[in-house]
Write a structure and sequence with these properties.
By secondary structure, the chain is an alpha+beta fold. The chain is 34% helix and 29% strand.
């Protein structure tokens, strides 16, 4: 049920971005509801990530969703840095590796 709502929200946002002439995003920041399911939903925005774009995560040391997600990204496809700024519940980022 929640995922269906998210997909309609994602579609709305993509349409809005397209109407503004935006087809890719250079930076995506994932912070909010900290469940793994929410992080997976938020990850859908990487479909819009530009070449060289960055995805950043907050709470990578304090909450299981962001922690396990970033820790388990495929490092053959993504350059990943995590466990940064542990005093602020952790910060991490990733970007696609170039072929």
């Amino acid at each position: 049920m929640v995922f269906g709502w998210f997909l309609s929200c994602l579609s709305f946002l993509v349409e809005k971005l397209n109407s503004l002439g935006v087809s890719t995003l250079d930076f995506i920041f994932i912070d909010g509801w900290h469940s793994i399911n929410q992080v997976l939903d938020d990850w859908e925005f990487t479909k819009l990530l530009s070449d060289g774009g960055v995805v950043a995560f907050h709470d990578t040391t304090a909450h299981p969703g962001p922690h396990f997600f970033i820790k388990n990204l495929n490092e053959e496809k993504w350059t990943v840095r995590h466990n940064l700024c542990p005093q602020d519940h952790g910060f991490g980022y990733c970007y696609r590796k170039r072929p």
